[in-house]
Amino acid sequence: MRYIRYAFLGALAIVLMVVALANRATVTLNTLPDRIAEIPGMGPFALSIELPLFLVIFAGIAAGLMIGFVWEYLREHKHRADAARKGGEVRKLERELRRVKGQRDQGKDEVLALLDDVR
């Protein structure tokens, strides 16, 4: 299984390098369209930067992955909270069970109490 993972990662690295080499041309990345940037007061928000296209592609993929991870983390919060609540309830019930067994076995011989625990 480990070799399959290494083979997949190697193939992915090769594909990413080919995409990067095929998309080396620079592109201009603007934060606002030209018409909106011309509106008075929008000048500080109108930024532009020239980057290789493969960096824009990879940054878009990385941003999409991070947004997906955060979305799933927030979506599964109720499940994690429910599991933590149930775990706390289990620990509370186990403590209560030990206390009840201790009260039940208070007057018994230790060997007989151990035999009761085995059943």
Automatic annotation (TrEMBL):
<keyword id="KW-0472">Membrane</keyword>
<keyword id="KW-0812">Transmembrane</keyword>
<keyword id="KW-1133">Transmembrane helix</keyword>
<protein>
    <submittedName>
        <fullName>LapA family protein</fullName>
    </submittedName>
</protein>
<keyword id="KW-0175">Coiled coil</keyword>
<feature type="transmembrane region" description="Helical">
    <location>
        <begin position="51"/>
        <end position="71"/>
    </location>
</feature>
<feature type="coiled-coil region">
    <location>
        <begin position="83"/>
        <end position="110"/>
    </location>
</feature>
